[in-house]
């Protein structure tokens, strides 16, 4: 009997198959003979002490016009699955947290969940890197606009962003004295009721915001530099940046080696580290991307390398 792999993700009908890393993972799993089951986060539930879900059998194809078939839903204990990939995109809101708590229950009942649900709850993608402040640009996180304004004044120029967004959404670059400062800070903090992050502006963003994928604490040797479009400061592909292949540098390998024991201890088996120059800016843990772009540019099988790790560490 083949191994059963569940995936919790956003609606598969709405993905961009040419670019979607979750689809790349599913295609590789199917090539290896896994039986695939598809869930939305809202398909998960608990029945007494049992973690359950309404799963749909899934078949995937590498076809931008016809990339999946799902069968009829079936109520099932999640313990029927061997592994679950939690790949729902941020925001990490109350619904997401509840889904991870149900997945923690499944984990306690013998299912391998990647990434570990407790780590998904604890490792905020913007804040987690601050456990290694010497690797990061100067950073301040606050809900008080005055504290963020003071940071901009200290730095002369800063990047402002929310803690729960992705894909370059709601990222601002402000210089000291910028007339838009007040409205940006009011918007990001909801008038002082929500945390936001301010980071030192790194001019090397012109060279790209580099994504390094890390499997079980080990960096994949091929990375993606996301170069901002003309007139932009965001390298995110979702914000119009372009991808260029880039090798993983010795400095980046050293950062991975420093982070690896913590990543392994927490069960963060699939992570995306973001670098600008030599500075670590984010640790992405929810649904790290760029598999398809790295494959296309470098002629490699990134998802295959991940499954080599997954099967080798079972």
Q: Would you write up a description of this structure?
A:
By secondary structure, this protein is an alpha+beta fold. It has 3 domains: 4-114, Rossmann fold; 138-201, 2-Layer Sandwich (Dna Ligase, domain 1); 204-309, D-amino Acid Aminotransferase, Chain A, domain 1 (2-Layer Sandwich), CATH 3.30.470.20. It has 8 helices and 18 strands. Strands 1, 2, 3, 4, 5, 6, 7 and 8 form an 8-stranded mixed β-sheet that branches. The longest helix has 17 residues, at 250-266. It is globular. The protein starts with a strand and ends with a helix.
Low-confidence stretches: none
Number of spatially distinct domains: 3
- Helix tally equals 8
Mean pLDDT: 94
Short account of what is shown:
This protein is α+β, with helices and mostly antiparallel strands. It is built from eight helices and 18 strands.
Key terms for this structure?
alpha+beta, eight-stranded mixed sheet, Dna Ligase, domain 1, six-stranded antiparallel sheet, 314 residues, D-amino Acid Aminotransferase, Chain A, domain 1, 28% helix, Rossmann fold, single chain
